[in-house]
Amino acid sequence: MRQYERAIPDFDEAIRLQPRNAMFHLKRGNSYNNLKQYDKAIRDYSEAIRLQPNNLNAYRQRAVAEEASGDSAGAGADRARAQGGRGRRN
């Protein structure tokens, strides 16, 4: 778990320098998700999706965080979007 905690400040800095880089938001979201900080993970995944709407991995990851946080409806919608295959796989 410590590697995820240590990674977050690095992603914070990367996002500060390149705020429109969806991958940085996705990776920071993964760190938050692994730390069970689902609200923060969902916020980062949502920003990655806003920046790169066809990023299917961001939808898949957001679905995982939504399910863990108790939002089954949101998780189902994101899984359906990811399985629909519309977009780019990352």
**Stretches with pLDDT under 50, minimum 5 residues:** none
Number of strands: 0
Q: Based on CA inertia axes, which overall geometry fits?
A: flat
Indicate the radius of gyration in whole angstroms. Answer: 12 Å
Helical stretch tally: 5
How is the CATH topology named? Serine Threonine Protein Phosphatase 5, Tetratricopeptide repeat
Strand content: under 5%
Output mean pLDDT: 93
Largest sheet: none
Strand-pairing-aware structural class:
mainly alpha
Task: Report how far apart the termini are.
Answer: 24 Å
Count of distinct structural domains? 1
What report would you give on this structure?
The protein has 90 residues and is mainly α. It has a single domain (2-83), classed as Serine Threonine Protein Phosphatase 5, Tetratricopeptide repeat (Alpha Horseshoe). 76% of the residues lie in helices and 0% in strands. The chain contains five helices and no strands. α1 (2-17) packs antiparallel against α2, α2 runs antiparallel to α3 (38-51) and α3 (38-51) runs antiparallel to α4. The model has no long low-confidence stretch (mean pLDDT 93).
